[in-house]
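Lab channel / #folding
Pinned by the channel admin:
"Please post every new chain as: sequence first, then the structure tokens as a reply. Keep commentary short and put observations after the output so the thread stays searchable."

First post following the new format, from NK:
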Amino acid sequence: MRRREFINVLGGAVIAWPLAARAQQPAMPVIGFLSARSPADAEHLLAAFRKGLGKSGFIEGQNVTIESRWAVGQYDRLSAMAQELVRRPVAVLVATGGEPAALEAKAATSTIPIIFTIGGDPVSEGLAASFRRPGGNSTGITFLTTHLEPKRLSLLHQLVPHAATIGSLLNPSFPGFASQLREVQDAARLIDLQITILRATTDDEIEAAFETIARQRIAALSVAAAPFFDTRRDKLVALAARYAVPAMYQFREFVEAGGLVSYGTNVADGYRLAGIYTGQVLKGANPADLPIIEATKFEFVINMKTAKTLGLDVPLGLSAAADELIE
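Reply from TO:
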């Protein structure tokens, strides 16, 4: 063999070896991220999820891929999105933004591991056999926020004590609607409060609800927990300001956007925990053996600037009980 031919053969072998080696390396695992919310209102939550994922050494773009699907509050889109991710296929399906995404993920696969974030009881919703031993292919985090409507109503009544009637805005398409409605009505009876139930599943119905509030002179509004309302955060806060209605929300993000008051759990921390669980599953953990995590940190936040604009004097007891006062 001539010297030049030998060099060419050797060079070809050197070039070909890395290509063959790379072909043998396993592809990066893909996480399917299914959410009932929108990327705009949940950007900080996705960042918290990535932070939790990093605890297990998984960094998006380096050794894991995240494939996202966002329903933007339109629950009827979730079924097709979940099935699309299952066909992808994904190594783990992360269902966030409440029960609608978790239930559609559960319906789409009985084999792919599911990590969910919801606001209610995963056992009663059929997502798990028990909190301690979920069984099946799904586990996750519950914020318990859908069961806090009575507490929110009570706090709002204390903030607006002279209100003869308070409105409660609920989303009938949300799986927890029936229990929320029952709990709100029971809570109103306990404190001898007149309550008006308002329903909204579209943007037009949200605007119609506020028109009803103005027409009937409803003194305050409690916005129930629902992913649809989370995706309309800015709209709800703006309408409350336009109609000068004191309003209570489930998450602090509403108050940071200019809303009056919120009572709920730290949702970003829940997404961080979901990221940690996802990393553990990618490393081989079985969802059936990972206990469902219940939120334990509750936040009561008041926007004092908004209260002043509305002409409200926040009772000293409430301001002292608040975890944060936004000035």
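NK: The longest strand covers residues 30-35.
TO: also worth noting, The chain is about 45% helix and 20% strand.
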